[in-house]
């Protein structure tokens, strides 16, 4: 009983420290039954380039933010309910190693750990939290997830027409359905994508046609759940989609210095080890 109280107090202190590091820019994280399972730095594949982000794994949510001062201050807090998450391991490719996808209905992205062991630990702990949540709630894992955006630097020309060269004037845009990098004319249509937003989002012409064909099929689900087409000029001016085109945590233009980050900490494992050691010490003292 005492051990449980000590662990509960330690957990409360850890959560308070996370809240303090985000300051007023973050939302309160302390809730009844919430446990901080682990924390550490992962490299997140952002729209413009890979960037280090601080991640906090709780038993019901995954939180991450931009690193302002390592271990002391973070901003641009993002909170992802774990019930919505699906993980998918990525194969090592060139400089991108030890990665996996974090997929949700509204946003999906790739992250990379420093080592294969860290990747294994992160994925195992996240999967365990998801499994426990779904078992307790009786819910089924989500079947649809948002597309992972292709990074800007992987497309010098439009991935749809294969002709338009991207310049300062010819901006890159992302199709919200498939994640491809496309030019303005090839993404002039908009669609309300279920799970991502109630507002019409930019999609490429190919996805727009596919979505319309899908909508025209005999409905297997209520019509209210089907995506709604929107004409190119509706709800958007020439720059109406520009703010939505940006990855909301991708505008940190500080130099991404090569910092040495500590290995991730997973408290459940540490607490068990500590309890075991304490118990062994007491037994030896008898």
UniProtKB/TrEMBL annotation:
Where in the numbering of this chain does the FYVE-type domain appear?
A: 152-212
Which keywords does the record carry? Metal-binding, Zinc, Zinc-finger
The UniProt regions of compositional bias labelled Basic and acidic residues, in chain numbering, are 254-286
Q: Give the Gene3D superfamilies listed for this entry.
A: Pleckstrin-homology domain (PH domain)/Phosphotyrosine-binding domain (PTB) (2.30.29.30), Zinc/RING finger domain, C3HC4 (zinc finger) (3.30.40.10)
Choose any GO biological process term that the UniProt entry carries and state it: endosome to lysosome transport
Residue ranges under compositional bias (Low complexity)? 222-235
Which residues, by range, are in coiled-coil regions?
A: none
Q: Which SMART domains does UniProt cross-reference here?
A: FYVE, PH
The PH domain is annotated at 35-131
Example of a GO MF term: phosphatidylinositol binding
Name of the protein = Pleckstrin homology domain-containing family F member 2
Say which species the protein is native to. Diatraea saccharalis
């Amino acid at each position: 009983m005492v051990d449980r109280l000590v662990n509960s107090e330690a957990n409360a202190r850890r959560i308070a420290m996370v809240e303090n590091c985000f300051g007023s820019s973050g939302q309160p994280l302390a809730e009844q039954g919430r446990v901080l399972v682990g924390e550490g730095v992962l490299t997140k594949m952002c729209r413009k380039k890979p960037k280090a982000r601080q991640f906090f794994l709780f038993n019901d949510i995954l939180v991450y933010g931009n690193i302002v001062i390592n271990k002391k201050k973070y901003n641009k807090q993002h909170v992802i309910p774990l019930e919505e998450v699906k993980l998918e391991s990525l194969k090592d490719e060139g400089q991108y190693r030890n990665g996996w996808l974090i997929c949700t209905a509204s946003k999906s992205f790739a992250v990379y750990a420093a080592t294969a062991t860290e990747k294994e630990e992160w994925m195992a702990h996240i999967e365990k939290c998801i499994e426990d949540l779904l078992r307790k709630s009786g819910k089924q894992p989500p079947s649809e997830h948002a597309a992972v955006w292709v990074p800007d630097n992987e497309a010098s020309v439009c991935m749809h027409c294969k002709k338009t060269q991207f310049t300062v004037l010819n901006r890159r845009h992302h199709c919200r359905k498939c994640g491809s990098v496309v030019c303005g004319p090839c993404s002039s249509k908009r669609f309300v994508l279920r799970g991502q937003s109630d507002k019409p989002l930019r999609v490429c012409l190919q996805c727009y046609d596919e979505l319309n064909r899908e909508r025209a099929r005999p409905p297997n689900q209520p019509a209210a759940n089907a995506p709604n087409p929107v004409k190119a000029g509706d709800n958007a001016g020439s720059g109406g989609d520009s703010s939505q085109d940006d990855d909301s945590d991708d505008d940190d233009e500080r130099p991404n210095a090569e910092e040495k980050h500590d290995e991730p900490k997973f408290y459940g494992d540490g607490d068990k080890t500590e309890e075991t050691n304490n118990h062994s010490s007491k037994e030896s003292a008898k």
